[in-house]
Design a protein that fits this description.
With 296 residues, the protein is of the alpha/beta class. The chain is built from eleven helices and ten strands. The strands form two sheets. An eight-stranded mixed beta sheet has the order 4-3-5-10-6-9-7-8. Strands 1-2 form a two-stranded antiparallel ribbon. Helix 1 (4-16) packs across helix 2 and helix 1 crosses helix 4 (60-85).
């Protein structure tokens, strides 16, 4: 049987980024923690950390062990909370993977209905590449993956696509840029400074194709994997940027930007991907049904 004290030392060291920080947090000497982790590695028959310069990095086995340890100690916290509160009702754990290209505001709006079911819920959200998340889904490490497209063909991972809906896109900009781009949309974008999603996002190609069709040649100031980072650059006045029209009003209010124009010719899609064809998880059912109404 696994020694869970050893596993806990490993978990803290992995979360804190090293044995020294784990030692400070646990008030245990680094030598003791290192020795306990070595015993755990002997039990597994594989190294959990590899040394890179002065730093420790997780091995493949270490990353797998960490994902299990996350759940083990999360459940332990839930048990402690439930016993302290004198409640035997255990909250449902919903494990969600969010593809890194999905806008954070969209992800929240899609997941929010799970909290409105009237049942105790604890949500575990992981953000990563779609390929990595689908691998975890195949191992039943996730209940649901939110993505901007279906399972890519040829990936060799089984998953069932549930279309949630789609949205046109809107162009927004800081007031200093927007004042020169208010008239004659979309022609006003020709030569305008623009921030766009990077190539990992399906919107990248769709957007460039639309520009070619409209004979528009903006000045691309930056390409971003992370839509939140793109919004921050846009808010600072580096360039105009795109957002799904479904959340355009929220972005305008949150970032203090102005709407330039919208188009339905470029559409962003959203999918829920599950390991089963027929969704049985009540929280996932609530998410998919609400999303289809919202994005209809």
């Amino acid at each position: 049987m696994i020694n869970y004290k050893h596993l806990h030392y490993f978990w803290v060291a992995a979360k804190q980024g090293g044995i020294a920080r784990a030692s400070e947090l646990l008030h245990i000497t680094p030598q003791t923690i290192s020795g306990q982790i070595s015993l755990l590695e002997q039990h597994f028959g594989s190294a959990l950390f590899s040394k890179v310069g002065r730093n420790l990095e997780l091995t493949e086995t270490g990353r797998l062990a960490l994902s299990y340890a996350d759940e083990i100690f999360t459940l332990g916290d839930e048990l402690e909370d439930s016993l302290r509160q004198g409640s035997a009702e255990r909250p449902q754990l919903l494990k969600v993977g969010i593809a890194e290209v999905v806008p954070k505001t969209i992800a929240y709006r899609l997941l929010e209905p799970a909290y409105n079911m009237g049942e105790p819920l604890r949500m575990l959200c992981k953000e990563n590449t779609l390929e990595s998340l689908l691998a975890e889904l195949a191992l039943n490490r996730l209940d649901l993956v939110l993505a901007d497209g279906p399972v890519p063909p040829g990936l060799g991972v089984r998953g069932f696509n549930h279309a949630l809906g789609e949205s046109g896109v809107s162009f927004v900009a800081s007031p200093s840029i927007a004042k020169s781009l208010q008239a004659n949309f979309p022609a006003c974008l020709d030569g305008a400074p623009l921030l766009i999603p990077s190539e990992i996002n399906l919107m990248h190609v769709r957007l460039l194709q639309w520009f070619d069709k409209q004979n528009i040649h903006p000045q691309i100031m930056g390409e971003f994997d992370d839509s939140a980072l793109m919004k921050t650059f846009g808010q600072a006045g580096v360039g105009a940027f795109i957002v799904p029209t479904a959340i355009a009003d929220e972005v305008v209010n949150q970032y203090g930007v102005e709407l330039i124009g919208s188009t339905q010719d470029v559409r962003e899609q959203f999918f829920a991907i599950t390991a089963e064809r027929r969704i049985a998880n009540p929280a996932v059912v609530a998410i998919t049904e609400s999303a289809r109404e919202w994005l209809a």
